[in-house]
Amino acid sequence: MKFGKVEQPELIDFTIPKDHPETSVLLSKNKKDQQTNFYVGCAKWNRQDLKNFYPRGTKDELVYYSSQFNCIELNATFYRIFPAEQYQKWYDKTPDGFKFFPKMTNEVSHLRRLNDKVYEIADRYLEVTSLLKDKLGTIFLQMHNNFGPKNWDRVVQFVEYWPKEFPLAIEFRHTDWFNDEKVAQELYYLLQENNIANVLVDTAGRRDLMHMRLTNNEAFIRYVGANHASDYPRLDDWITRLSKWETLGLSNIHFFVHQNLELESPLLSAYFIEKLNKKFGSNLTIPNTLVQNKPNTLF
């Protein structure tokens, strides 16, 4: 993932900002009578992107990937709507409890930019995506960098149209959604009232996206490692923050690991999952990163 990439990550202050004041208010309203759901995964499962992850002789990458992770941020669906039979194949290849968090097609987000032509496309997307059934996690809508608050009416119309039986998370990238206090408050209220997750992106060059404002009982976090030694302490800091949120009432933690150069995302994921299990007492599988006797270290 090149978004937010910088040439000298050692110059970036990666400190996680303080929570937005309304985050604790929101979480305190949740009834903490259910077990916390943890889903941690990568963005893709293909061999080219996950270097040195698959054992020699692996015949089906998704089958192996889903034996190591409990979810995937499914970026493939951003580029096209697949035939119905493809979703059924994905469903059949993965074990019980596995979740797909598919990205909404770019026809909706980037090409038509939530105009009045997107609704038929969204319906077609949902028709086939729903074939993932109980393995369908939150659908992820990522808006273009230049999609700013002047498009507010389009956002409202789309949010009101969206079928509420499908969990949705939205990532806004234009900085004016966050640096204009009035705009930000209106956006957060809209998402909160419609039970839509407000995506957090932790990447070096766009610290403004760390708004720390949750809008429902879901932390949907896209973590982008900088291929730098700082990647690990950053993950430690997320464990601390997630623990705080869980104590306040958060029940759904969805954490997706990227890198500027997708070399060792499974390695970062394994580190994070091990820390997560120790902190929360969860029992997520720790991915096997010792393929072909490769040293278990990035640096």
Strand order, largest beta sheet: 3-2-1-9-8-7
- Separate helix tally: 11
Average pLDDT figure = 93
Q: Low-confidence segments, ≥5 residues, pLDDT <50?
A: 291-299
Total DSSP E strands: 9
Strand content: 5-15%
Spatial gap, N to C terminus = 19 Å
What would CATH call the architecture? Alpha-Beta Barrel
Q: Could you estimate the helical fraction of the residues in percent?
A: 25-40%
Structural class: alpha/beta
Question: How would you describe this structure to a colleague?
Answer:
By secondary structure, this protein is of the alpha/beta class. It has a single domain, classed as Protein of unknown function UPF0759 (TIM Barrel). Helix content is 36%, strand content 14%. The protein has 11 helices and 9 strands. The chain has a 6-stranded parallel sheet with strand order 3-2-1-9-8-7. The chain has a 3-stranded parallel sheet with strand order 4-5-6. Strand 8 (219-225), helix 10 (231-248) and strand 9 (252-259) form a beta-alpha-beta unit. The longest helix is centred in the last third of the chain and has 18 residues, at 231-248. The chain starts with 20 loop residues before the first helix and ends in a 19-residue tail after the last helix. Pfam families: DUF72 (PF01904). It comes from Flagellimonas aquimarina. This is DUF72 domain-containing protein.
